[in-house]
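Help wanted!
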Amino acid sequence: MILRSFFVLFLFLPAARAKVSFNDDIRPLLSNSCYRCHGPDEEDRKGKLRLDTREGALHERKGFAAIVPNNLEDSELIFRIVTDDEDEAMPPPGKGDRFTKEQIELFKQWIKEGANYEVHWSYEKPVRPEVPVVASPQWKVSNAIDAFIYDRLKKEGLTPSEGTDRYTLIRRVSLDLTGLPPTVEEVEAFVADKRLDAYARLVDRLLAKPAFGEHWTRGWLDLARYADSAGYADDPERTIWAYRDWVIRAFNANMPFDQFTIEQIAGDLLETPTEDQLIATAFHRNTKTNNEGGTSDEEFRNAAVVDRVNTTMATWMGTTAACAQCHTHKYDPITHEEYFQMFAIFNQSEDADRRNEAPIIQVVGQENAKHRAELEAMIAALEKETLVLKNHDPDVLEKWESDLKASAGTWQVLEPTKMTASSGATFKMGSDSSILMSGKTAATDDYTIIAASKLKNITALKIEALAYDEFGSGGPGRTGNFVINEIELSAGKTKASFSNATSTYDQSSFEAFAAIDGNAGQDSGWAVGGALGQDHHIVLELDEPLAGSELSLKLLQRYPNHALGRFRISVADSAGASVALSAAIIDILKKDSSKRSAAEKASLTSLYANSNSEATAHIKKINDLKKQLVALKPLTSVPVMRDLPEAKHRKTHIQLRGSYLSLGEEVSAGIPKIFGDLTEGIDRDRLAMAKWLVRKDNPLTARVVANRFWESLFGVGIVLTSEEFGSQGERPSHPELLDWLAIEFMEGEWDVKRFLKILVMSSAYQQSSHVSDEMAARDPDNRLVARGPRIRLTAEMIRDQALAVSGLLSSKMHGAPVRPPQPNLGLKAAFGGGTDWKTSAGEDKFRRGIYTSWRRSSPYPSMATFGAPNREVCTVRRGTTNTPLQALVTLNDPVYIEAAQALARRMMGEGGATTGERLEYGFRLCLSRKPNRPEAARLLALFGEAHSTYAADSELAKQMATIPIGPVPSGADVVDLATLTVIGNIMLNLDEVLMKR
Amino acid sequence: MGLGGVALADMLATDVHALEAPGNPLLPKLPPFAAKAKRVIYLHLTGSPPHLDMWDHKPELVKRDGQECPDEYIKGKKFAFTSGTPKLMGSPRKFAQYGKNGIWMSDAIPHLHEVADDLCVINSMTTDHFNHAPAELFVHTGFQQPGRPTFGAWTTYGLGSENQNLPGYVVLISSGVQPNGGKSSFGSGFIPSVYQGVQCRSKGDPVLYVTDPPGMNRSLRRSSLDALRDLNEAASKEFAHPETLTRMAQYELAFRMQMSVPEVMDISKESPKTLEAYGAQPGASSFANNCLLARRLAEDGVRFVQLFDWGWDFHGTNPKEDIRDGLTTKCATMDKPVAALIKDLKERGLLDDTLIILGGEFGRTPFREGRTSKGKVLGRDHFPDCYTMLMAGGGVKGGYTHGASDDLGFSVARDKVHVHDLQATWMHLLGFDHEKLTYRFQGRDYRLTDVHGKVVKDLLM
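Answered by r_m:
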C-alpha cells in the first residue's frame, strides 16, 4: 500500500508546480507526521497545538505561532522541521521520519502563498465537473469516462491501448457482470454479430441474467459480514439466508441504490413495512452473537452496536470510524462524543446477544404469500355465504329441534383404562366417571387417555371441562383457566380427522376450532377465560365415522401453566349429537316452544344456523380451508432489526476508552458535525440516518459506492484505498472523474445497472490488457488506465467457472445454504458441534459459491485459500495474494478433479471425433478462444505422454477417470477419459483461466 | 509515512508487488535488530490450566482453604460461572522447588521439574478478558474481537520463513477441538492471507489437498506441470503479462511442498528412544505427536509452529476437570512431551534460538467455582487478574521466576505483566520494535500490541 503511495506521488506530481495545494501536497504530510500529536484528538494533543485547522495553526502562544502566513521567518513550523537541534526538531526523534528537502520546500511555498487550508476533498459535496473536450484521432472516446482518462493520459505523455479482441472482451465482461464465463455458443454469437451495437446488446443480455444478481451479491455480503453461523467460540448455525436471497433479488430487480440502502438500514421503520423490507434489515443482524457460557450479554450487545456503527460508516461512507470508539479520531474530524452519537442511533434495537437471535420473523415467502391470499379470499367468501344460510324456514326449525331432543341424551361416557400426563401428574376417576388431576405439574402438559368403547361408528367426541372448588377460580383448569391446543383421537392405527368443533363457551381468540386446526402452538387452542368456575364442554364432529374398541385420546396443552383440572369424555354415534349443547340450551329445549322468551328463541335460532346439516357441510368447507391456511409453513425465519418501544429506550453514554463499563456523559443521537446534520423535524433514528446516507448533499456515499463498482471492474479504485476516504486514505487518481461518476450515479436515480453499463461501455474498459515492459514499470497497478484491466478471479468465481465450463454447475437459485464436498477434519468447534459436514446431495453439490454454507470459525477451505474472508467483520477489499496452497486446491481438491473429469467427458462427448478437436473444444470452453498452434501442439504432446502412462496402467486410468465422479459412460474409453482429465485439470489451472484479462 | 523501516521493506518485497517480486512473500528476512529468537513454538493450552495447582504456589491459600472469600477480593467483579460468595480453595497438590534457582512446581508436572533451569515462569500475568474466545484472541492478536493478525502472522510477515517447501506458519491441533476463536486464532486478519497459519494433520492429507488425486502419479504430475509451465510461459509472452511468472513459481513451490510436507509430518522415522521420550506414537493425533512435529518443523526451518490442545478448562463439571486426579491425567499428556521438546531442542542446539511459549488465555480463580461447588469435583472459574505463563529458550532467562501474586493469588503483587507487555517482549525477542512492525489498514497503522505494551526487560537473558 505504502509503496503504491510512493508511486502515486512520484507518478502524479509534476516537477514544477504553479501553486501548492493544501489537499494534494500539505495535508498528507501533516496527517502522516503531525496529526497524531497535533490533530483533532484533544486528549493526546501536545503543547495545545493543533495543525488540522488553520485557526489552530495560526494561533499565537507565548509570542510564537506555528504558521504565520506569507512569513517564513516567523513561522515556527518551518524552524522546527528544519532544525537539527534534537530538543526542538519536529517530528521529534523516534516519532517519525524528518521531512525531505522537497517536502520542506512545499511547506515553504505553501506558507508564502498564504497557508490556505481546504476542507478534506472527500468531505466536500461533489459537483459535476466539466467533461474535458479531447481530440483523439486514434482512440474512440465513447463517453465522459474516456474523456477524463484520455485527458489525463495526454498530460502524462501517454496513449491508451487499442480495443481488445472480441473473444477477450466477451469473457471479460461476462465474468465482470455475471461472475461466469460465456458459453461457447455465446462467444460464437457475439463474434459473429456484425451489428454496430453488438457489444451494447451483449451488455444488456448480461445485465438481465439472474446470474448478475448472484455475482454482485457476493461483494455486498462481504460488506454485510453475512455468514450462516453466529460467530465466537461455539459458532452455532444461524438461519439468515433469507437476507442473502433478498440481496440477490434486489440486484436482479435493479432496486435503486438509495432504496437498497434505506431498506437495509431501516426497513422496519418505514410505514407498514413489507415482509421484504423487514428481511432487508437483517443486514445489521449479521453481527456476531456470543453464546459461550458465562459471557455477559450486555458486553456483546455493545460489541454488536459498535460493529453496526463501524460497518455503516465503512460501507456507505468509506470512513474508518473505529478509532473514535476509544478516543477522538487522530486524523479525521470525528470526536469520541460524535462516535457515540452514532452509537445512540443503533442503540435502540431490541436484540441483545440472545442465543435465540430474537427478534426474528417467520418468512412466508412470495409463493406462500400468494397461496395464503387465495385461501383467505375463499374463506371470506364462504363466511359471507354463511350469513345467507341463516335465513331459515320455521318448519325445518321444528323438525331440527325434535331431532336434537332425541339425540341429546345419546352420549356414551368413556371410562379410561390408562392415563398418562407428560408432567407426571396423577389422574383420579370419580364415581361420575369424571377425571380429577393432582400431583406433579409442569409448564406444559400433554394428557394421553386410553379407553374402550362399544360404539361401532363413532361420529362425535365430547370433552366436558368441569368446575372444581379447590382449583384456582374454581377451575376447570388446575389453576383456573386452561388451554387445549390440539385434540387427537385414534382407534388402533386409524386417526380421526375432525370436521367441526363447537363449544358451550369460547374465550375470545381461543375458539373451539383452534383445538382441531392442526396447530399445537400455545396461542392456538380452546380456552374459557371469562367464565371460570363453571362447567363447559366442547363437541368435535368426525369427518368419517371411527370404529374400534380401544380409543386413544390426546390433549395437547402447550400454554404455560394452563392444564385442564377436571374433565369427562364421551363419544356418540348419532349424527344429531354433533353439536355442543349448553345447559341453558337444554333448558330451553325442555320448555314448550310457546313459553320461550324472545331471547331464548334467538339462542335456538342461532344454534340452528350453525348446526343444521346444510350449515355443517358449509362450515366443514370453511374449516378445511382454515386448516390448509394453518398448514402453510413459513419458508424460513430471519433475525430482524426492531426498535424498543419509546418507554424502554436506552440511554447512551460516551464509553471511556471504548469500554461499555466505564461510562462518561450522556449523549443524544446524531452524526459527526463535519457531515452536517440529520434532516430536521424527523425522529433521530435509523431511518433518519439511512435517509441521510443517500441524501444528495452527502459528500461520500455516491463517491464511495461508485469507486467500489469501478474497483470491481478495473481492478483498482480511483481511490485506491476503497475502504478509507478520510485524510489517511489515498487521494483519487482522477478526482474529477470520480465526482462525475458520483453525480451520474445519483442523478441517474441510483440506477445500478445503468451505472455499470456506463462503466463497461467506456473504451477505457474495453482496452486490451497487454502491457509493455516500460508501462509495467511505470504504472504497475494501471492507475492511469492506459490499458485494460487484468485481475485474479475471486474465490467464488474460480469455483463457479470450473463448474460452469465442465457443465456441472447448477442454475438453481435461492434457498438454504448448501454443503459442497470438503475434507473431513474430525474437529469440533469450541463448545460447539463438529465442523465437518454431510455433503449436499444432487445438484446442491454443484451450486454457485454464493450458496455455500459460510461458517465463520471454519470457512469453506478452498475458498478461504483464495482469500474469501471469514466474514467476522465488514470486508471492503479482499486480498489477492498468490500462494502455493492455491495451486494445491485447483490441482488436487476433489471438487476440481471432478470438474476436470466432467470437462473430459464433455470434450469426448461434444468435442468431435479427433483428439485435436476435443482438446480445442475443451480449450474454448475454458478460455472462450481457440488455442493457437503452439498451444494446441503442447496440449497434444501432454495428451500423448499421459495416454501412454494410462495405456500401460489401466487401474491408474480408471482411478483418474472415475474418482470421485463415478463410472465411465458406456462405450467410453477409460484411457482416453483419464488422459483428458489430466488435460482438463491443466486447463483449469492455466493462468489465463484464473485471471480476468 | 508512520511506518518503521522494517515494515516498509516488507511491503516493498511483499504486499502490493508480490506479483512482480521475484520468489514469494515468505522469503526469509532479517529483523531490524539482532535477535536471539529465530523461530517460535507456541503451545496453547486451550481453556486455561489451573495455574494455582501447577506453578503459582500459595501456602496462605491452602491455610485458608474452605473459608468464605473475603468481600474485598470479589466486590464489583464479575465471574463467568460464580456469583455470591465463593469459598477459597487451596491447592490439594504437593509443591516443591526445582532447579538451581528453586522454581516452584506442583506434582502435576513431574517431567517439567527436570527442565526447571530452562523455564522462565511469569507469575504476574494479567489480561483484560475472562471469556474464552475474546481472551484467546486477545493473547494471539492483541485484540478481543476477531479480525486482526495473530502473533504468528506478524512473525511470518516480518521474518518470512526459512524453508519455502513448507508453510511458514504451521498449526497443529490436538484433542479434537478447534481453538475458541476458530480459524481467527491462527488467521492473518487484514494482512495478506499468505501469512495465515496452515493447519497440518497427522491423519488424512497432512496439509489440505497436498496429496495428488487417485490416478495421478508423480511423473505424470511433473509432466503435466511442465506443460502448464510452457503454456503459461507462452501466454505471458503473447499477452505480455509478467505476473504470470509469479504464478508459475507458486506451482513449482506447490510441487515441492507435495513431497516435503508428508515427509516432515511422518514421525515414524524418529528413533524409538525419541518417540518414547515424547510419548509419541506414529499415526496418533496427540499433543505428544504435535510436540515432536513441532521440533521437526522447527528443525526444517518453519518460522512459527502453533499448537492448540483442548481440555484445560478445569471448571469441575466432571471428573476430568478435577484439579486432583483429573489434572494429573491431563498433565500427563502435556508435561512429558513439553519437557522432551525442551531437552530435544537443547540437544540439537536449537533451544537458544527457538522461543517456546506455554500457557492458556487466562488463569483460574483462587476460589472454588460457584456453579460446581456442591459437587464432589474440585474446579476453578476463569480468572483474568493474575495468572501464570511460561517461556523457554529464544533469549529468555532460564530458571527464572518473574513477578508474584498476592498471598491468596487474587492480584499481582509485584512486576505486573499485561498481555500486551508479553507480546511486546515476544516481538523484541524476534528483533522487532513492537511499535514499528505495523501494517496500514483502513488508514491506521495496526500492530500486535494495539496501542499498548512495554518490553519486560527482566525476562531477557
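OP: Thanks! One thing I noticed: Confidence is low (pLDDT under 50) at residues 1-22 of chain B.
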